[in-house]
Amino acid sequence: MVVPTVVLAALPQSRVQILDGGMGVLLPKLGMPKDPILWSARALVEEKYHPIVVQAHRAFIDAGATAIIANNYGVIPGYLRKANLEAEAPRLAALAGQLAREAAGPKGGGVLVIGSLPPLIDSYRVDLVMPEAEAVSWYAMLARAMAPFVDLFVCETMSCPAEAASALKGLKEGDPDGKAWVCFAVDSEGKCRDGTPFNVAVRQLSASSHVSGVGVNCCIPEAVELAVATLDTDPQASAFASSVERVVYANSYPKEHNEGMKFSTETLDDEDVRKDLTAEHYAESAKKWANRSTLPFTFVGGCCGILPHHIKLVTACLKPK
Ligand SMILES: [Zn+2]
User: Fold this and answer.
1) CATH number at residue 72
2) What's the CA angle centered on 53, arms 47 and 59, to 5 degrees?
3) 33 Cα–ligand 1 center, Å
4) What's the 3 CA to ligand 1 centre distance in angstroms?
5) What's the pTM value of the predicted model, to 2 decimals?
6) Which residue intervals of the chain are DSSP H helices?
């Protein structure tokens, strides 16, 4: 059913739900050694860091998040192959789901657990998107491993529509009844990394019965409005976006990390976050996203570099007691 835009626009502000922030920058702050090969998957590989994963999830829940994303973003062939751990992927993905569930409590208990279907080789790199057949089998494996623990999935940090299409095909294969949000890591102009305008990418998702949300993530906050404004002039994309959740979780990386393919995890210090993006600035953006006059966002959180203190202030602004 397509819900008219005008109805959603009139819903009270409390309609918005709070998502968590980024685990990748938080985990090293809590004691996981920085690992430029495995990144956040290091906390899954070594059992002694499992409590830190739960602690990080709980820090976001305590800050007000009612939806958390499992820590399986690093469970991808692009990272695991370098450590000869590819065969461990199903176990590590399930473990990430299990640790998130442990932090969130049982299904139906008020906190959603979302499984990540991330880029398989590297983030932002539309030139490295895995060929479809291989990608689909990886995504199917991730979905199958995590389905018992999660409420839904997010195809996140998608660089282009083709990458999202592979993730959705994999989901359909691995968890036939599963639903997913699809979030694109738009560049600083609000476009997908292959130049596809956001509205065109959203329009292409409308054919899938598995998509329960659309949005943007791991982009600079300034790019969010540029992306979502394209929906306002596209009746088909706008009608679809109004019938599903609208999701935003931006990052705190400097603008140059968010442009073209200059970004590479090989040169990234994941704590190299913007000093100008205070919790107050981020919460201001969050307020604008949740209060758009058309297609207001329904899930607002943060990605890389957005920490519990940011989410706490976002919660205070969007869910005043
Ligand atoms: Zn991110």
Assistant:
1) 3.20.20.330
2) 155
3) 19
4) 30
5) 0.93
6) 5-10, 23-29, 42-45, 50-62, 77-80, 89-104, 132-146, 161-174, 198-205, 221-228, 235-242, 279-290, 308-318
pLDDT, one tens digit per residue, over 121-159 is 988 889 999 999 999 999 999 999 999 999 999 999 999
Q: State pLDDT tens for residues 51-100.
A: 999 999 999 999 999 999 999 999 999 999 999 999 999 999 999 999 99
Alpha helices in 112-177 (DSSP H): 132-146, 161-174
- Total number of domains constituting the chain: 1
193 CA → ligand 1 middle, Å: 14
Burial of 46 (0-12, 13-18, 19+ CB in 10 A): middle
pLDDT-based confidence at 266, cuts 50/70/90? low
Q: Is the C-alpha dihedral spanning 69, 51, 27, 72 positive or negative?
A: negative
**Region of 241 on the Ramachandran plot (φ > 0 left; ψ -120 to 50 alpha; else beta):** alpha
What is the reported pLDDT for 275? 79
Distance from the CA of 116 to the center of ligand 1, in angstroms? Answer: 12
The verdict on whether residue 218 carries a ligand-binding annotation is yes
Give percent above pLDDT 90 in the chain. Answer: 84
State which amino acid sits at residue 105: G
Distance of CA 156 from the midpoint of ligand 1 (Å): 9
- Residue 293 CA to ligand 1 center (angstroms) comes to 27
Q: How far is the CA of 300 from the centre of ligand 1 (A)?
A: 14
Q: Which domain holds residue 221?
A: 5-318
Q: Is 183 annotated as a binding residue?
A: no
Bridge-based pairing state of the strands 152-158 and 112-117: parallel
